[in-house]
Amino acid sequence: MITRDEYKTIRQERHLIVLDTNILLELYRQPANVSRDIIAGFQKIADKVYIPHRVYEEYLENRQKICGDEQKKYKIMKHELDDSTSRFKESIRKKTNEYRKHNYSGITKLQGDIERKLDEIKETIVAYEDVHKEQFQSDLDFLKNDEVYQFVQSLKEQSRVGSEIPFSEKLKIIQEGELRYRNEIPPGYKDIEKAGTEKYGDLFIWKDIIKTAYKERSHILFISNDTKEDWWKSEKNEPDDLREELQEEFLETNPFWQIHFLTLSKFFGYLSDELEIGESLSALQLTAQEDAADLLKKLDEKIRKQICEQLATKVDQTVSTPENIYLQTISAFVEKEEKMNVYHVQMVCVFLEEKRGIHFLLEAEIEKEEYDTECELRKIEIHNVTTTAFSDEAWECMMKAKNKHLAWRKYAQSIRREIDCLIEYSKDDRNVYEILIEALRNAFKIEHFNENHRAEQYRRLCDYLMHFYDEDNNESSSENEEE
């Protein structure tokens, strides 16, 4: 993506800022304060904003469902958390009653202690709702009043929405699209499974952009969160810029003009600096993930050193090769403390060395003073540490994998499948039963087994290894990784 200086240069020349459908719909998903600031920013540069007619159509088709879904989330959040806690409490009661039948010592006290902790969790949920009640109400008001729709309609009234593509021209684009999609020529071929002409939505938008750039004699900044490969080229699994084929196609019609892609977070980061709201909480919240990634790079050596120190105490083994630690951020958010920005980052981590692996969750706090480039590591904490020994074959696969976290997850899945299979056989075959115990003892370094609940324990061990990996978060990675 273009740098801040390149963005400033384009903003001083003839240009249009084109909004994709997903940008308009994203405004429903962000907190109200963030979306209002984004809308305010766009309104200040409304004369440069352009919405292709296809984007406008797609927005109108989807806005009510997205808006309704977001309202529902706010209304049911507390109920869902309460319900989850209650179901867990009931599950604990059932389990402890089973253990009580086998005369487990101290089981009644354990049940009471757990239930008291669960009651504390419920109180925490209530307190959270009380503290954030005003913010939640503001978010609901934003959605109920559909301030996004008001914003889009105001742009339409200012003639910032393009004209509909003529029917005859649409037919030509559809015919071209059939050829392009068969040969995976961007954009939009990833949507080939969609019904009817819906699959050609991206291509309609693309043709509109080319035509409008020519007509207005303008550079294009296309703001989109659609980071699929049929639009973007990637750098280290991150969207980098427009595909080269699309650059060439654009330049054939517009040899004197440039086109660049930006995600909403990157664009709003640049725009907020331009409008002098660069360190506002809204701007920080929107770019928290990207900002945290930059800060983590600066603190990489220090973080790895502290991880080694903490792991040594957790697993009672020396960990002296920090370069063998693989880190993957799963969430980041930012808070303001006077003139200090505090980033809270959660990561999953894998340490690999000599056919053994250590898997753990890491939480880090990083502080950075407003408008300063330097940052400090407040603290890191590691939790949920588990160790695994690998077979020769599994170790070779792990070392070849580009994404160690995804490889670890697949390894855990394969063990889980083998365990389920062995458990079925072991019901009738004592030899298989003994093999199962030995295999698991080697895999998980377990010295003691609960005779009554062996199978459930093994399953939980495998589930634990996969616990931090959500299918949605890994879907995009799995397409790119060769295990």
Overall 3D form: globular
- What ranges have pLDDT less than 50 throughout 5 or more consecutive residues? 445-455, 463-483
Q: What composes the largest sheet?
A: 4 strands, parallel
Radius of gyration based on Cα positions:
27 Å
Helix-strand sequence: HEHHEHHHHHHEEEHEHHHHEEEEHHHHH
Give the total of beta strands. 10
Mean pLDDT score, rounded? 82
Strand order of the largest sheet: 2-1-3-6
Would you give an account of this structure?
The chain is α/β, with parallel strands linked by helices. It folds into three domains: 4-72 and 142-274, no CATH class; 287-389, Roll (Nuclear Transport Factor 2, Chain: A); 394-480, no CATH class. It is 59% helix and 17% strand. It contains 19 helices and ten strands. It has helices spanning 4-11, 21-29, 32-44, 53-101, 107-131, 133-144, 147-157, 167-182, 201-216, 244-253, 264-274, 281-286, 288-298, 300-315, 392-400, 404-426, 430-444, 454-466, 471-480; strands at 15-19, 49-50, 219-223, 232-235, 238-242, 259-262, 325-337, 340-353, 356-369, 376-389. Strand 4 (232-235) and strand 5 form a beta hairpin. The longest helix is centred in the N-terminal third of the chain and has 49 residues, at 53-101. It starts with a helix and ends with a helix. Residues 445-455 and 463-483 have low confidence and may be disordered.
